[in-house]
Amino acid sequence: MQASYHLTEKDLIDAQISHAGRSFRALQLLGAFSVAAGLGAVVLAGARYYQALVPIALGLFFLFHLHLSAKLSFKRDFVSQGNVEVATSQSGIRFLSAKGTVDLNWNAFTRYTETKHLFMLYPQSNMFLIVPKQALAPEDLTEFRQVLEQNVAAKSASYARRFSPKLIVFLTVVCAVAILLGVVLVRSRG
């Protein structure tokens, strides 16, 4: 199977969101809560609205940081821009671009993920290669999926996505700080 494609900014954003998984959704929820708390503090604090800027800024960061970092990454990453050709064989996969060629055996991949628009192949837990589905003809799409199932699926099935302990501690600290800020704002009003 062979295909040729150009990665788009949307492809990269979709891949980043898929890679982040549940933590992305948790941070989006935390961001929305923080913005709402900040806006509520503005209403309650009246003239001292500046105290609410921290939770609002923090919330906006959580809401938009992934999209912004993906956009910036796309603009500065010379690899993601330009034509990419991909070819599979029984032994592995080849990515060819103007910048170079990468040949990887199937055992180089720890797992793969299929989203609505992309295939993401992981040579490492936090590094992935993107193959957009739109680059593949319908018969190639089926063939590519079968090749991935034969060569990478067992590893993918054994990979369980969990919240990392670092993320749990981070979210706990952020929630505690948000609650303390809210308490301070309410007490300073009265």
Short description:
With 190 residues, this protein is of the alpha+beta class. It is built from six helices and seven strands; from the N terminus they run E-H-H-H-E-E-E-E-E-E-H-H-H. The N and C termini lie far apart (69 Å).
Report what the structure shows.
The N and C termini lie far apart (69 Å). The protein has helices at residues 9-20, 22-45, 53-76, 138-151, 153-158, 165-189; strands at residues 2-6, 83-88, 92-97, 100-105, 111-114, 118-124, 127-132. Strands 1-2-3-4 form a four-stranded antiparallel β-sheet. Strands 5-6-7 form a three-stranded antiparallel β-sheet. Helices cover 55% and strands 21% of the residues. The protein has 190 residues and is an alpha+beta fold. Helix 1 (9-20) crosses helix 3 (53-76) and helix 2 (22-45) packs antiparallel against helix 3. The mean pLDDT is 82. The chain has one domain (2-189).
